[in-house]
Amino acid sequence: MSNSRRGFFRELASAVASAKEAVEPEPPPPDLTDAEIERYSRQLVLPEWGAAAQLAAMEASVLVIGAGALGAPVALYLAGAGVGRIGILDDDAVELSNLQRQLLHFTPDVGAPKAESAAAKLRYLNPDIVVEPYQARADAANAPALVEGQDLVVDCSDSFATRYAVNAACCAARVPLVEAGVLGMAGLVMSIKPGRTACYRCAFPVEPQDAPRCSDAGVLGPAAGVIGSLQALEALKLLTGVAPPVTDGFLQVDLATSDFVRVHASRRADCPDCG
Amino acid sequence: MVARTLDISGLTCPMTWVRTKLELERMAAGEALEVRCSPGEALENVPRSAREAGHGVTVDGTTIRIVRTRRPVASSDVAAGRGAA
User: Fold this and answer.
1) pLDDT tens digits for range A106-159
2) CATH number of the domain bearing residue B63
3) Is there a contact between A45 and B17 if contact means CB atoms under 8 Å apart?
4) Is B22 inside any structural domain?
5) Of B21, B72, B74, which has the smallest distance from its Cβ to A45's Cβ?
6) A40-57: b or e for each residue (b if 16 or more CB lie within 10 Å)?
7) Enclosing domain of residue A139
8) What is the CATH number of the domain that holds A146?
């Protein structure tokens, strides 16, 4: 039994759908409207994309954890691409020091809740989608309820504790996940199909124990933009299947040297999250 | 079999190919689509895009007749050297 309202309705809808399927042939896919064809024309024209991919994106529900430097490009690109329902979760307020890299927030937003600030811009970008702001912080206690019923989770948080909690919840609920991190001029991106490909804890079994230094708080805006954009691309790949995502390992990106390196990781039989 | 028809006269690139491509996606392999277009850019680009995707194409005046292939070619196939000749 589902423990979330959306999960309950999703199960109800799928039960009704499977009951109907037994007696009725499957209805033809809905047509895109003229406005949708125009709005999404630059992706519809791609050989890999097409109406099926567009409809898959429009029917998807995605949770973006964090409305900061990574969450901004992720949420903007997903909203732009037409992802039907975007939840954006952040418990912080916008600070002046955020604006150098967090593209969803502007100077008049300083002091406003980040989730609300982000949602307002996303609705402005694409009024055809549903945007749900959540003023909360993901942790081990609430992560299972947050990821329940989602088609995909994109983790744009800035702490290892959150990443491990989100990874564990997505593995338990079998919800695909895109993980990422960025620091200075480098970062990494990893797609996870729980139970099928290596999870975040398979790749990083132990949380780094080094105490963060003040200098670790530095990040160049465009570096976060590149990593967040890669994360958004992974999300669209996972939602639509138009290209293979970075699974069973991660993409390590050093933007100081311009090196993109694919690092392999395997599933661990003894992984406490997905094993 | 009566071919499907699509009028893209009045549209400009890339909407000419977007509309044609979406119509082709709705068709079965072997089905034909007659596309009416204006002289000029569309008459050059739409047949080229359709051929690159692997469909059968003939042009008669400003009517482009496209027969849908079984599996359209993706640009990633072309990049990997697996594109249609």
Assistant:
1) 999 999 999 999 999 999 999 999 999 999 999 999 999 999 999 999 999 999
2) 3.30.110.40
3) yes
4) yes
5) B21
6) beebbbebbbbbebbbbb
7) 5-23+31-264
8) 3.40.50.720
Q: Are the C-beta atoms of residues A182 and A70 closer than 8 Å to each other?
A: yes
Question: Domain total for chain A?
Answer: 1
Q: Is A216 near chain B, with CB under 8 Å?
A: no
What ipTM describes this predicted complex? 0.82
Q: Is A214 considered catalytic here?
A: yes
Residue of B nearest to A28 (CA): B26
Does the beta carbon of B73 lie under 8 angstroms from any beta carbon of chain A?
A: yes
Write down the residue that tokens 């990106």 correspond to. Answer: A253
Four-residue CA torsion sign, A110, A115, A118, A124: negative
| C-alpha distance from residue A197 to each of A10, A22, A181 (Å) | 25, 33, 19
Instruction: Give the largest Cα separation in chain A, rounded.
Output: 64
Determine which one of A199, A214, A271, A274 is catalytic. A214
Does the pTM exceed 0.80? yes
Q: Are B63 and B32 in contact (CB under 8 A)?
A: no
For chain A, say whether B21 makes contact (Cβ under 8 Å): yes
Amino acid at A138: A
What sign does the dihedral A150-A169-A235-A154 (CA atoms) show?
positive
CA-CA distance, A208 to A206, in Å (whole number)? 6
> What is the C-alpha separation between A190 and A8, in angstroms, rounded?
30
**Interval A229-257 mean pLDDT:** 98
Q: Is A217 a residue whose pLDDT tops 90? A: no
Predicted confidence (pLDDT) per residue in A52-81, tens digit: 999 999 999 999 999 999 999 999 999 999
Q: Do A37 and B22 touch (CB under 8 A)?
A: yes
